[in-house]
Amino acid sequence: MFQGILALTSGEPASIRVLPSPKLAVAYLLLRPFFSPKTPQPTAGYDEEAASPEAVAAWDAFLDPDNWELDEKQSTIIHGAVPGHAQRITELWHPHLRLRRSLVEIPTLQAGDYVIWHCDQAYSIMTTTPSPSSGASTSKPGTPSGTAAPGLAAGSEQTPAPSMLMYTPACPLTQTNALFLARQRKAFMQGQPGPDFDSAGSAMTSEAPHEGRPGRDEIAAVGGDAGLRAMGLAPWELSRDGNSVMTRPGTRAGTPTPGEQQQHQQHQGDRMEVDSNGEAAADKRRVRGSGTEGEAEVVRLANIILFPDRYDFYIPSERAGAASGARVNGRAQAEQMAATRQLISRILS
Q: Where are the annotated segments for Disordered (predicted)?
């Protein structure tokens, strides 16, 4: 699972910095809540080049292992973690990471450059507009501001030249991600920032009044079926027996060729049904790639979450002893269906 950015303009040097040690950084993040310093953090800013010898000595003493001890009484606090928000790394909460020295600058980006990094890798992105918590105080280790950001959130610092970056995450299809995708789809169709880039308190604003902003037709024209699925605008397909995930080439043009249109009409009758039965042999002729039965279960769930009006909830049957894979009916199914719809409605509201 990776995330990254696509540069739309040429950026300034050091617009993106990463901490190329995810294994050690994550280990530190996991251990940090269990320990506390014996002495308070120095008030003087820590900068090896500009700090006084006294300040450097004070920080070295503060970071010394002998100055830290295991808390006898543990709490549920995880430094920089808030439910529903990205994990945040700062000099105040994670002083041993030495963010000023450990963050590595990447080369200057040119338009068209694509940069990806692991989702657990700490990084910092400088923008033209500082966040409310940023500013002059970002240079001080004693403030939990946007000096550095973790692998799931970008910090903000002021840079003299504007740059345009497109955030492009790549993540697996799971129940949690399908629920997020439904929220992202709603925001996209309304011209609002995505759920993880909330406009509240930031420089991002609504594009709802913009004329000509992209919609479903533009996604279909550029990305085809694959693009529509990635944006939550089209369901995934399963084989008729429901045991494998089907992928077919998506069109990159608005109008399919006559051959593609004829092939589409031939297969229109066997488009995905959540738990329909059929012969697998007919599907093998048109399966471009197939996944495991476990992946098929995830696809069913994702389709139910994203398109509850098109796919009914189902209870998977034991396929080992029952080749028919009969659908389970009755009161239990009705109650489970109602509970699932209520859960999805609460999450998406």
A: 128-161, 190-215, 240-293
